[in-house]
Amino acid sequence: MVHERHQVLGDPHPASDYLARIEGLGITRAAALVMAPRDDLSFTRELNDAVLALCDESKGFFFAACSVHPADGDAALAELRRVASLGATWVKLHPNTQDFDVSDPAVEIVVAEATALGLPVLFDAYSPWDRNQPGKFIKLAMAVPESRLILAHAHGPDFPSLLVYEIVARYPFWPRQVWIDVSATASLLANGPFAEQFAWVLRKVGTDRVLFGSDYPLDDPRTALDGVRSLGFDDDELRAILHDNAAALLAGTS
């Protein structure tokens, strides 16, 4: 990663390691992301600048998912405006690692500002400590209806709660602005007794709202890709999950 204070694992995992792991897999773009600490704006800027620089160095292979901490208030909003002006593509928020509650009004303020700047917001969306978190994401999407929210990990073992998105999609007020990233969960459930149910739930949500993710460095990209391919999706569904849906988000056309 970009800084030893911000490594997910103890061993270094630089961008070059990821690039070596995906060789031959057909992966054409990947998010470079960080997670901002609270009350440390200098380090937050350092992290964001590092991923922005990496994206420039990679000539567009990586795209920047910069981060702020919702508790940093106006300073967080100013940092969002700064990174947006420098080419940030998405915003990354992680309730567990950053230790905030999705229902905190400060989160809605950050999401609203990111939305005004044209930035989708990628959330880690599985908390073993907050069983109400899936409903909080629904409320957040309703509070900022023009936002584009990406829920990483598909609520993990609680993936059946995603069925609510099939229900709300029946109502005219729901704009279908929530995408489901299957990183970690697809490989966890692949080739097991819940794999068929997981694919069924994702189809209920709509495979036009499902995104591939590898959860690197905690998971291997090849393992993640094999996991998605093992779920029984047809070629059109796989094309959407592995490429088309993310490409539309990145292009701002979805």
Summarize the structure.
The chain is of the alpha/beta class. It contains eleven helices and seven strands. The chain has a domain at 125-254: TIM Barrel.
If you had to describe this structure to a student in words, what would you say it looks like?
This protein is α/β, with parallel strands linked by helices and about 250 residues long. The protein has helices spanning about 15-20, 40-55, 75-85, 95-100, 105-115, 135-145, 165-170, 185-190, 195-205, 220-230, 235-250, and strands at about 30-35, 60-65, 90-95, 120-125, 150, 180, 210. A 7-stranded parallel sheet has the order 1-2-3-4-5-6-7. Helix 2 packs parallel to helix 3 and helix 3 (about 75-85) packs parallel to helix 5 (about 105-115). The longest helix is centred in the N-terminal third of the chain and has 17 residues, at about 40-55. The radius of gyration is 17 Å and the shape is globular.
